[in-house]
Structure formats: structure tokens, C-alpha cells
Amino acid sequence: MATKNKKIDRAKQERVLTTAHREYGRNLHSYAFFKTHNHAASQDLVQDTFIKTWAYLVKGGEVHLMKAFLYHVLNHLIVDEYRKHKMASLDVLIEKGFEPSADNSESISNTFDAKTMLHLVKDLREKYRKIIDLRFVKELSLEETSLILGQSKNTTAVQTHRALKELKEIYNHKHGQYGSSEK
Length: 183
Description:
Blueprint: H1 2-36, H2 39-58, H3 66-85, H4 90-95, H5 105-108, H6 114-121, H7 126-137, H8 142-149, H9 153-174
């Protein structure tokens, strides 16, 4: 009986991972490409993400939010890749003119257009750049973002608010709008 249950569990795991690949694979690849600026490396990273997730599931691990879990695994693989190859940082990629295809500027502020926002994001502190990327470029929920970052939803919400505030201050400073009635 135990063998039959293992086969059922494995079939369920395969369906879950296949569905996740179909639903999130393209966005994961975009995210990896945004970070590495290399199609081959991003494809390898996404493939490794699904392999690691499969290994985790086979070992009996449970995943409650697959999208957040996949981004979490991918994020760690990207960090490892940076360490291995000392690849260019996000700042360098932005300076070279690389821009993600997603335009979510309305979510951030009605006064920002996507190009302006991307050029200003490089001036944010690293933790804020990461939150802006996950929340507004990748359109992850607060819960998914907090899981990826390994912090509470409240901390993530506060940091998101602070990141947007800092982004607005950078925008105002660079565009000569020093007096803002909002605080």
C-alpha cells in the first residue's frame, strides 16, 4: 500500500511542478535574464530552479506558495552565480541600458514612467532595489515577496513603503521638485 501512495504522491508532484513550469517558467526566465543579462545563463538558472524544487518535493518537502518558492530558489541560484563568476551588478546592467520588459510604473507612482523609474532605482539602497524589483517589476504579492526575502510581511510592507518614499525623494531631487506637500 505504501508503494501505491508513493506513486500517487509522485504523480501529484509531477503535475504540480509541470503546472508551475507552464505558469511561471517564462517569468522566471525574464527575472533571471534581468539579473544576468545572459539568455543561456538564465535558462540554466531556471532549469536548475525546477530541478532543485523537484528534489525538494521528492524528499517530502511541502510548498504552499509555489511561485514564491520558485523565486526564492532562483534568487539563491542567481546569488551563487554572481559569486562564482563575479558577474556585473544590477547597477552595471541598468547603466548599460538594460530594461525589463514589464512596465508597471502606475503601481509605483502616477508621476513615474517606467524608464525614469528604472534609471532612478539604481540610486536606491540594495535592499530597496530588490523589493521594488520583486513587488513592482515581477508583480509578486507582499506575502510572496516576504517569503523570498525571508522576513515578515510587516517588515516587507514597511520596507516597500520606505523604498517608494526614497524613490520619490530621488525623483524630486533630480527633477528640481524639492517641496512636496506629502510626507
